[in-house]
Specification:
189 residues, alpha/beta, Rossmann fold, seven-stranded mixed beta sheet, 11 strands, binds the ligand Nc1nc2c(c(=O)[nH]1)N(C=O)[C@@H](CNc1ccc(C(=O)N[C@@H](CCC(=O)O)C(=O)O)cc1)CN2, binds adenosine-5'-triphosphate, FTHF_cligase, NagB/RpiA_transferase-like, metal-binding, metal ion binding
């Protein structure tokens, strides 16, 4: 299926989830991440959910990262690209026009310092390709990171067979975590 059709399909499926399904699936995804071979790193990049858009609630994953004493980095849209800030006890948040809770100020982190990125998505396929909102924010961000950065998709739904219309700028995932299972794409490339 084409990216734009998949975007529509999964936006609709996501909107049909009840708030208790969102909470249960978000918790299951967070707990499943503990089985990933990613926990020996320092800098973990995480998104904070647009709750009104029924995105995965990452609060439990945030607690896991804090419990493991990791450096936690969150994005902010500035001039049509992402900037990244260290999360501290003093970080203040403000919802962007798009509904993302974004840090107001703080210590900026360069992409080359980031070791692991948890990526929001609408759909993914069995090759680790991914569909987001279609703005290319994450594609451009990942392109600035070090080549060995670990890219971990989080998804309420299981993999599609194949996304068509994948572009040369699309960087595939290393792992994707759903409430049911972990997909690893590291062996297939
Ligand atoms: N929780 C969360 N945080 C995230 C993302 C995400 O998908 N989820 N992003 C993943 O990329 C980035 C922000 N993504 C954005 C995507 C679109 C627009 C935006 O400006 N949208 C237009 C409408 C565009 C349209 O409908 O065509 C607007 O609000 O005017 C802003 C940010 C970074 N943070
Ligand atoms: N590294 C890059 N440099 C410049 N433009 C890019 C880059 N990566 C992607 N783009 C552009 O961004 C646009 C959106 O890409 P795509 O449809 O793959 O978005 P997406 O993967 O759904 O969204 P996102 O990355 O925000 O989650 C495309 O027009 C693409 O050409």
């Amino acid at each position: 299926m084409l990216k734009k059709d998949l975007r529509q399909k999964y936006l609709t499926l996501r909107n049909q989830l009840s708030s208790s399904q969102i909470a249960d699936k978000s918790l299951a995804i967070s707990n499943k991440t503990l089985e990933l071979p990613i926990w020996s790193k320092d800098y973990y990049h995480i998104f904070l959910p647009i709750l009104s858009k029924q995105e995965i609630d990452t609060i439990n994953l945030l607690s896991i990262l804090q419990g493991k004493d990791k450096n936690i980095v969150v994005p902010k849209v500035e001039n049509d690209s992402l900037e990244h800030y260290l999360l501290t006890d003093n970080t203040k948040f403000k919802n962007s026009a798009w509904g993302v809770p974004e840090p107001v100020n703080g210590i900026q982190i360069e992409p080359n310092n980031i070791d692991v990125i948890f990526i929001p998505l609408l759909a993914f396929d069995e090759n680790g390709n991914r569909v987001g909102y279609g703005k290319g924010f994450y594609d451009k961000f990942i392109a600035c990171c070090k080549p060995e950065v670990l890219k971990v998709g989080l998804s309420f739904f299981e993999a599609e067979k194949r996304i068509s219309g994948v572009l040369p700028t699309d960087i595939p995932l290393d792992y994707c975590v759903t409430p049911e299972k972990i997909y690893s794409f590291t062996g297939s490339r």
